[in-house]
Every structure is written in structure tokens, then in C-alpha cells.
Task: inverse folding
């Protein structure tokens, strides 16, 4: 039997240590991990020396949807869902992966091959804590108003998502059944999408309210457009208040080689 210790670390993160160097992360109990994940929503697996080949196999035990990001280089062509974490070295505003679209994965996975000699920490925010700490005025605002993301996808982007052989009929079949979405096919086969959703979501297993979205990152992205559902602008003062709160609640993951992190998205 594997000798595994479960120890609390910082804020809402839980570290699962492996004290038996011969065991594999693939041998861990799925149900035991899910039971812990319900309470913490972020798990750090340390000491398992996880490699790229094991990431997908382990993630498939918990995740039913995998998505590609056009801006992130693929690590191994044989496993196209394992990519580099970011296309650059710049700061990335608080966000949930793909929360500006209906293709939001339930769980996000991060793995460290070689940690940075200095710095290189990954920032994270607890959406449940953000919702608890946010002002009552903003709570009422986001309960009463949904947010709307506007994006345009060139044909090359949606074909990468659906497959190189995808045609207009395929994208229509995919988008027609999605609630909260309207779209337009343009003459160059690009697709303009308006996606409306709540800024508040339920955690995957704990069923807790969380202020978890891509509002800040899209608002500050020169290419992004985000408004309230009725098209009215989101006041700068609102964005600044949220950003200030999230800055105060920022936590970091300090990496070691072979670490794997599982995050409720």
C-alpha cells in the first residue's frame, strides 16, 4: 500500500506527499482525491516525479473535457493537450481558463518540469473567498446582472479546436446547442461570438458560490470585450475594486520538479 501523507499548506491548497519513491501517481485512489478536492478545490501532488506522459493519464481519471489553446505551444505532438503554461513571461490577470467561452474545462492541471532558478511561482486566487469578501453592493450587482464576452475566432482557430477537417456545418452544430450564446459566421469564415454567463459559479464538487470568471483578464486585454448582458459598460471603479480585493487574496505555488497541481476551474 502506498504511504501517502495529506498535509495542509497555504490558505485553500492541500499538498499530497508521496513518501514511497517506487509508487506512481497513477496508483492513487480517485475517490480519496475527490473527497479532499471537495473541501480544498486545489491539490498539489508532490514527490511523485510526474512526467508529461503521466499528466494526461492521471487527468483523465477526473476530467471529461480537454481543450486546446491556440496561443500555447504543444509540449509533445503525441499528446496535444499538454502545452506550455503561457505564451510569454508577462503577468496574467486573475482568470479562469476559457471562462470567456462556453468551452470552460471543469479542472485545470499544471505540472512543473524544471522549476525556475529564481521566481517562477504560479499565482492563484480562491473564488469562494473572493465572493465572501466582496462588498455587498457588488454582490447584488453581479447577482442581478450577467456578463457578456465578445470574441472573434478566425477559421484557423476554430478548426484547431474542432479538428483540421472541420467545416462551417460542424461549427454551427457545435454552437447551435449552447445556451447563452449567439454567433455570426463572417464572409472570411471567421466566427463572431457573444457569450453570456454569470460571474458567479458553483464549485465542481463542493457546490459553493465562487466569484470565478475571466472578467478582469478580458477587461484588461486590448483584444477582449466584456460588458454587462445588456451591452452596458462595466464601470472602471467596479473593475478596480475587484482587482484590489484579488490582489489582497493572491497566493502562490512555489514549484518543485515533478509537481502536479489540480485546480477547480
Result:
Amino acid at each position: 500500500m502506498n504511504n501517502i501523507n495529506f498535509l495542509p499548506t497555504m490558505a485553500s491548497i492541500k499538498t499530497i506527499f508521496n513518501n514511497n519513491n517506487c509508487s506512481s501517481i497513477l496508483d492513487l485512489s480517485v475517490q480519496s482525491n475527490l473527497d479532499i478536492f471537495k473541501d480544498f478545490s486545489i491539490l498539489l501532488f508532490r514527490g511523485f516525479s510526474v512526467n508529461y506522459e503521466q499528466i494526461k493519464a492521471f487527468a483523465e481519471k477526473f476530467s471529461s473535457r480537454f481543450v486546446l489553446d491556440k496561443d500555447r505551444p504543444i509540449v509533445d505532438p503525441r499528446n496535444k493537450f499538454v502545452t506550455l503554461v503561457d505564451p510569454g513571461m508577462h503577468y496574467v490577470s486573475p482568470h479562469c481558463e476559457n471562462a470567456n467561452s462556453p468551452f470552460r474545462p471543469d479542472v485545470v492541471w499544471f505540472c512543473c518540469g524544471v522549476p525556475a532558478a529564481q521566481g517562477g511561482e504560479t499565482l492563484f486566487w480562491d473564488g469562494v473567498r473572493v465572493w465572501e469578501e466582496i462588498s455587498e453592493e457588488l454582490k447584488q450587482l453581479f447577482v442581478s446582472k450577467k456578463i457578456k464576452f465578445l470574441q472573434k475566432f478566425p477559421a484557423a482557430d476554430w478548426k484547431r479546436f474542432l479538428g483540421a477537417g472541420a467545416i462551417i456545418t460542424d461549427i454551427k452544430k457545435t454552437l447551435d446547442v449552447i445556451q447563452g450564446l449567439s454567433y455570426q459566421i463572417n464572409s472570411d469564415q471567421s466566427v463572431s461570438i457573444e457569450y453570456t454567463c454569470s460571474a458567479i459559479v458553483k464549485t465542481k464538487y463542493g457546490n459553493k458560490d465562487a466569484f470565478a470568471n475571466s472578467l478582469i483578464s478580458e477587461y484588461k486585454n486590448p483584444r477582449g470585450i466584456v460588458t454587462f448582458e445588456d451591452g452596458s459598460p462595466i464601470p472602471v471603479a467596479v473593475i478596480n475594486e475587484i482587482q484590489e480585493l484579488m490582489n489582497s487574496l493572491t497566493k502562490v505555488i512555489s514549484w518543485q520538479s515533478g509537481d502536479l497541481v489540480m485546480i477547480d476551474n
Summary: Residues 1-11 have pLDDT under 50 and may be disordered. Residues 125 and 247 are 9 Å apart (CA to CA). The two ends are 31 Å apart (CA to CA).
